[in-house]
């Protein structure tokens, strides 16, 4: 059974940091694009960051550039999202996702393209 399990969410003050992790099990995601999305109440799910299979290609939505960093550890089948200088508008449920793209360099931003999803972790930033 394929599972993506997020962890690391919580409540933090504005300006603080959190590190999200997404551990995969049930299959090897080494060649998959990995992505982070978020969904705030009443809003659509939006792309936050993505990384290709090697880590050589990363992509961020404009609002998090310079503050968030995505990385991956393929032997651990895990992807991370380091979030610094958090703002109240970063408050959302954060989801990790995986897209089958063997050895590709394109990082998809449309959630419908992703094959697997985690259950989400809540991030709340107090102002």
List keywords for this structure.
127 residues; mainly beta; four-stranded antiparallel sheet; 11 strands
SS-based class: mainly beta
Q: Round the Cα radius of gyration to an integer and report it.
A: 13 Å
Helix content: under 10%
Give the overall pLDDT as a whole number: 96
Number of beta-strand segments: 11
Question: SSE string, helix = H, strand = E?
Answer: EEEEEEEEEEE
Architecture overview:
This protein has strands at 3-7, 10-13, 18-25, 32-39, 46-51, 58-60, 68-73, 78-83, 92-100, 116-117, 121-126. It has 127 residues and is an all-beta fold. It is globular. It starts with a strand and ends with a strand.
Compact overview of the structure:
With 127 residues, the chain is mostly beta strands.
What's the topology here?
Layout: E1 3-7, E2 10-13, E3 18-25, E4 32-39, E5 46-51, E6 58-60, E7 68-73, E8 78-83, E9 92-100, E10 116-117, E11 121-126
Parallel strand pairs: 2-11
Antiparallel strand pairs: 1-3, 3-8, 4-5, 4-9, 5-6, 7-8, 9-10, 9-11
């Amino acid at each position: 059974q394929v599972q993506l399990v997020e962890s690391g969410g919580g409540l933090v003050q504005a300006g603080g940091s959190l590190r999200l992790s997404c551990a995969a099990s049930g299959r090897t995601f080494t060649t998959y694009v990995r992505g982070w999305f978020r969904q705030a109440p009443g809003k659509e799910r939006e792309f936050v960051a993505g990384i290709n299979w090697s880590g050589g290609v990363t992509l961020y939505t404009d609002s998090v550039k310079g503050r968030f960093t995505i990385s991956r550890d393929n032997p651990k089948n895990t992807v991370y999202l380091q979030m610094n200088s958090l703002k109240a508008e970063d408050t959302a449920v954060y989801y990790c996702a995986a897209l089958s793209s063997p050895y590709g360099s394109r990082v998809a931003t449309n959630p419908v393209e992703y094959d697997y999803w985690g259950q989400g972790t809540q991030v709340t930033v107090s102002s």
